[in-house]
Design goal:
The complex is a heterodimer. By secondary structure, chain A is of the alpha/beta class. Chain A has three domains: about 220 residues, Rossmann fold, CATH 3.40.50.720; about 70 residues, Ubiquitin activating enzymes (Uba3). Chain: B, domain 2 (Arc Repressor Mutant, subunit A); about 90 residues, Ubiquitin-like 2 activating enzyme e1b. Chain:  B, domain 3 (Structural Genomics Hypothetical 15.5 Kd Protein In mrcA-pckA Intergenic Region, Chain A), CATH 3.10.290. Chain A is about 30% helix and about 20% strand. An eight-stranded mixed β-sheet of chain A has the order 3-2-1-4-5-6-7-8, covered by helices on one side. In chain A, strands 9-13-12-10-11 form a five-stranded mixed β-sheet. Chain A is globular. The two termini of chain A are about 40 Å apart. By secondary structure, chain B is α/β, with parallel strands linked by helices. Chain B has three domains: about 230 residues, NAD(P)-binding Rossmann-like Domain (Rossmann fold), CATH 3.40.50; about 40 residues, no CATH class; about 60 residues. Chain B is about 35% helix and about 20% strand. In chain B, the strands form three sheets. Chain B has an eight-stranded mixed β-sheet, sandwiched between helices. Chain B is globular and about 60 Å long. Chain B starts with 13 loop residues before the first helix and ends with a strand. Classes of the chains: A alpha/beta, B alpha/beta. Chain A: It catalyses: ATP + [NEDD8 protein] + [E1 NEDD8-activating enzyme]-L-cysteine = AMP + diphosphate + [E1 NEDD8-activating enzyme]-S-[NEDD8 protein]-yl-L-cysteine.
Amino acid sequence: SSPGTDNRWRHVRRLLERAGPLGGPEFEPDPELFSAIRSDLVQILVVGAGGLGCEMLKDLALSGFVNLHLIDMDTIDLSNLNRQFLFRPKDIGRPKAVVAAEFVERRVSGCRVTPHFGKLEDKPLEFYKQFMCIVCGLDSVQASVIPLIDGGTQGFQGHCRVVRAHATPCLECTADLYSSTQQGFPLCTLAHTPRLPEHCIEFARIMQWPQEWPFGEEVPVDGDDPHHVDWIRTEACKRARQFGIREPDFRLTQGVVKHIIPAVASTNAVISAQCVTEVFKAITGCYPLLNNFANFSDIEGVAVNVVPLERNPQCDVCGQPPPKPLTFNSRDSLQTVINQLKSEHGMTRPSLTACVEGRDVTLYMDLSFLRDQLADNLDKSLAELGLLSNTVLNVTDSAQSGMKPVTFVLNLEDGMET
Amino acid sequence: MTSSAVEAPTDITAQEAELYDRQIRLWGLDAQKRLRASRILMVGATPLTGEIAKNLVLAGIRSLTLMDDSPLSADDIDSSFIYDPSLATAATTRAEAALSALHSLNPMVEVSAKSGQPEQLTADVLANEDYDAVLAISQPVEVLQSLGRLCRSVTYDGEVNSNGAGNNSNSDSSAKQRRQVQFFAADCFGCHGYVFLDLQRHEFATELAEVPPKAGQDSSVDPKTAAVPAAGSQPVETHLIKRSADYADFESVLRTRWDPAKLGSLRRLSPALYLAFLLFEFQRANNGARAGPNDVDALKTLWRAFAESQQLPANLLDEAVLSSGLQPPSCPVLAIVGGVAAQEVIKAVSHKDDPFNNFFVFDGIQSCGSVQTLG
């Protein structure tokens, strides 16, 4: 139990219990709000337990949240310790999520942190549905209906953005904002007209290594093996001398081979804190969210600015209006659904797929060679087909070529929900 | 306190090279060496101090000395990671309670507590204890004034060698320079915060991108204004150039007159900036006491008088913004201001890259920061 009193949360309570200048137009202060954000209903997922993740976990715990999950697939390395401050030298080799969770639970009484040591992609969709908000330092999570707060840093620069399906651009809409961390040099530059030490390094890694196999046939480059890096550096230096380019040192060589991104604690502190502020606002509703992309840089002086990015109407991922509801009874047949699509939604020969238990299932295809195979489905009830309320249906019309799929969401009146 | 008689070694160890690898790639080895020779004094051991100190200790300075004799309370422990929870019932000071957490973040950094009040610091103390920078955190305005003056009164006559350590010897090398004590002030008020720098005459190195041999082949680079491109974009050859900048002292900044003829631009400034100055006024009128939620009326009266004396419209700062600056700061605000402050200290003591000049304000309502050159 805490050595302090309830006084420790007074700064948080003030934001939630009183009307004031920070409240948005729809915010209703309520003394119950503080205990509500600490109830089981409010679960928050932090993606990544590295430079941003450690800072975010600290900020969330000290902002009063108690049900935190943390997912990360990495173990701790010495070079992490210049900024990932929940880790100590004795933790090297242990999973980041596990160590971070232990630290915060020990230090902030009442806060529960559940670690997940593994990859995002290995978790089923259901895993993500338990969370009221997701905050991450990676850009590999697709937009979902729940608010997603995304932060990223490289060296002295960083961003914090709010993503909400149908309201803001999804991560795919603005993918070109993120400069590639893979230094994709054109091969002709590497082969014929190198100008930079990096070109010489990549030439040695990509072209010379697989020709000479210096450490054995088919033995790949291991950026963590200093002998490998040294070999690449030696070859890169020879090439650099040939072309009158500055010869790379070991650090630069290893950085290029391993695609190392420079990183420092202060930038992570700023970006994480901005993200957690948005999480707090998203959960409590106490103030409108950031609209919607904040940039930070302290290369020269300090610059912070916020831009309202617009959705890309051509976006493959989100360039669609919100799904329209279709209301049926679970005993209705698939044919009933198709009839309604024809009569009320202007479709002639609709084909339907749905996401059932995490897998895409084709329900019916109105194409000559598939009609018969799936004809049995037409008489089955929606319940028999495993369709529940909130199932999303993707519908195309074979009679309109080039048409993008239209999404509908099922609303079953007697219904069990997904 | 140890004197500078023991020089920092000029080369970093292999372990340090690995630990600091990610940041050396950002600011270079020379800057890291200067950082690791820097001695810093922080007056005030508040949660904001904790955020700044965390970033400085992780970055690998030589030593950090905390000065704060106020007794540790149970609330302090719950509000920040920096205080040792096992000292909850011990009769100890905030400075003492922060030492073990800071030490464990980076055992290579010397952390210590220094007893006493800021008024007791003298030029001799600063010089003998060899501080490169003094940070005044959450201090009343009068303390800021006296510390700011104090830092300017200290100059080290001696050679500054390549790792930044002064050694007070009168070597006749042509590299003899006067070393100054850099002064920083920072505080958070409600959902806002400020960071102020006085680096006197500051010399630093910055990287300029080289013009590529064939114009148009790379992304356009203006040789006059080019900064290093964002990490992750195509790399460009750079070379170091030396620059210098002059900073105003805190007194001049405090006496800033807002020019009513420039009302258009004054309106675009964050109201949090005016609030920061209003809170200085309040401290002056109330013996250094911090304004709290119960002081709204007194502050409104003070603001009206302040605005009138400077011929400014009273609506530059409304009651809503005013009250947003009066409660204890939340964790994220401390982290943001602490991150910005720490990075400017790092730039300043390592003499690498451009520190801002001179007053940064974070506006927690707009979630935005801005820098003004005042004084």
